[in-house]
User: Which sequence fits this backbone?
């Protein structure tokens, strides 16, 4: 799956990693629902860091259709809330 982190670029990410990422996504959703700003910020950073670690960066001049778009590291709680799908940022 091709994943875009807004403001950074794209990575190719194997579907086998989504169970782990969904745990972080669930934490992020819970923190958003409780308006836990510090928890939200820490979990967003952890989620994006894990995507960067597990994914293979695509070349900067490559422009593939992104199947999943994640917020930038400095996105606000309100910006991320606007990006949510049913059950979080990550499907599944």
Assistant:
């Amino acid at each position: 799956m091709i994943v875009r982190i807004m403001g950074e670029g794209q990575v190719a990410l194997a579907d086998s990693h989504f169970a782990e990422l969904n745990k972080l996504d669930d934490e992020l959703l819970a923190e958003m629902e409780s308006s836990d700003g510090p928890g939200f910020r820490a979990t967003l950073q952890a989620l994006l860091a894990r995507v960067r670690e597990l994914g293979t960066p695509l070349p900067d001049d490559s422009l593939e259709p992104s199947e999943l778009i994640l917020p930038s590291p400095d996105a606000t709680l309100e910006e991320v809330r606007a990006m949510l799908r049913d059950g979080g940022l990550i499907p599944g």
About this structure: Residues 71 and 79 are 8 Å apart (CA to CA). Strands lie at 2-5, 9-12, 56-57, 68-70.
